[in-house]
Amino acid sequence: MNDASRLEHCFAALKKENRPALVSYLTAGDPDAATSRRLLHGLPAAGVDIIELGMPFSDPMADGPAIQKAALRALENGQTQAKTLEMVRSFREQNSTTPIVLMGYYNPIFCYGVDRFLANAARAGVDGLIVVDLPPEHDEELCQPAAQHGIDFIRLATPTTDAKRLPKVLSNASGFIYYVSVAGVTGGSAPTPERLENSVSQLREHTQLPIAVGFGIRTTEQAATIGRFSDAVVVGSALVDCIEYASTPDDAVERIHGLVSELAESVRACRR
Amino acid sequence: MNQPVNLPDANGLFGSFGGRFVAETLMPLILELQDEYAVAKNDPEFQRQLAYFQGDYVGRPSPLYFAERLTEHFGGASIYLKREELNHTGAHKINNCIGQVLLAKQMGKKRIIAETGAGMHGVATATVAARFGLPCVIYMGTTDIERQQTNVFRMKLLGAEIIPVTSGTGTLKDAMNEALRDWVTNVDDTFYIIGTVAGPHPYPAMVRDFQAVIGHETRTQMLEKQGRLPDSLVACVGGGSNALGLFHPFLKDPSVKMIGVEAGGKGVKSGLHAASLNGGTPGVLHGNRTYLLQNEDGQIADAHSISAGLDYPGIGPEHAWLHEQGRVEYVSATDDEALEAFQICCRQEGIIPALETAHALAEVAKRAPTLPREHLMVVNLSGRGDKDMMSVAHHLGDKFGMKNA
After folding, report:
1. What is the pLDDT of residues B169-192, one digit of tens each?
2. Are residues B45 and B179 both part of a single domain?
3. Which CATH class is domain A6-269?
4. A172, B24, B292, B354: which sits with the fewest CB atoms below 10 Å from its CB?
5. From chain A, which residues contact B within 8 Å (Cβ)?
6. pTM as predicted
């Protein structure tokens, strides 16, 4: 285990700056391997603090249309688990500080082989995992083995996570807590800030881990509002949409890095 | 050997299969459902209501019919048909829907959702939703809507809203994804009636229990008719609810052989099939670990079957367990074999079976001739074929002078 992980360093540094982290989500291999690589490598310079990289899955049950389409584009262009890990490895050759969290569903990891996956992910420089369909009841599958490889297992807390359930959700959580702002799929309706602030402060009473908020955050205004009371703001579908609307790969890169810069500016200013 | 009859364990596992692989948003609800179901299972009032609706509304018990002409035709085993197609709505699906809608009422849910492939589960769900005055949304793939238009119309008549699902291949798997997305979004007021013995715990066990009425009746009826248990049970398997409903009450009887028939499509070797056990590998999808059709990278493959109800790349986790334990033998029947058996059943018995059921009959055609008359073989006649007229006409239309089919 690292003495202090990239995620810990990142959150500690941001605390000194008194600002939240900007977390971007993109699907690995979307729209194609080469463009996806350019997108990934340019994210830190555009202002992303933590990178979430989606492992595409054919049946993304918790995702809305934007990320469903992203997964299909990536798979149609030949993305695999091995290629996703290779993307991380090549990113780490140039960047040793920006944390990367892989996000996805369990089946592609299970089929790759859990031990082999964790060993290769750790070697590639993966810092954390978010696996949507592995609740704490299945911690022995991946969460506990991940800890042995020094990879954080980031847990989702949701509006349905009541006081009775919360201790279980927090039990083996590490890295940060991802608060799902609305009951629903990614890219859905925006949460109301008041209720969200309340939920985040309740969550804080039970955990020392940083709290990220995601699902339904699309605009610089939303990012700023939510960034005032959370430790990180996750933007996904709005970025992924840029790929769909882009006319060329260059256009996609320009749009995404452009939107990231605006969001980055917004989270940097939100507590001033 | 482990006693498969006492599974799943507290975590919903049948050996390594089953489980609760769902998003955290759904977990509190799934745990609540598990508790509510555990109470209902032992609640005399719930069981009384269930028995009442199974009897007066569904029309149970369904007959166990000696298929004399089919027996003569194949010239071997004595063939009995468990007439689930005579149930209200024309298939076994309603056995489960009645149980789940009673549970939904008990839990105070205000809205019903379901996925459907062939439309029989959709029709059964729309039916119970109408009966209990609950709004109902059915997710159905566009490919299935195309080939099961009669059922789409039936569901609409029953007051259900049909949401066409275009993602993926527009079949059952995609409908299930979309129903899960609805559920996670409307988790407070919505009850998801899953139609087969799959999904997160407690669904595989709960659906099995509601369908086990098929096997319990068969046992009593065969004892009355022949004074002994059947020698073999045959049923088609997609997700596997009609098969498990028939098999489960006999799992502890070693003399009873059980055969599950998967959809072989164009043949398991062709790669165009829906035979998860015969042509798949273990994986995690739709809340449970089971055998799936998938590539080596864990991406789910498309299933292929003439029968919309079997066109699913997975199978209930208890079947995966029974397969690995060797308690049930799983075979497959191709589209062509099913169509052939379909016609034999029509002509010999005057019963038009569902295309799903025809897969079980195709196995009977292979197996019955090799067995003596004393061998008592029960086939689950899980559904009637009215819904399949368009599909069958498409494949056999020329033969019957329906040129435009």
Report:
1. 788 899 999 999 999 999 999 999
2. yes
3. alpha beta
4. A172
5. 57-62, 64, 68, 75, 80-81, 105-112, 132-135, 137-138, 155-162, 165, 169, 180, 183-185, 188
6. 0.96
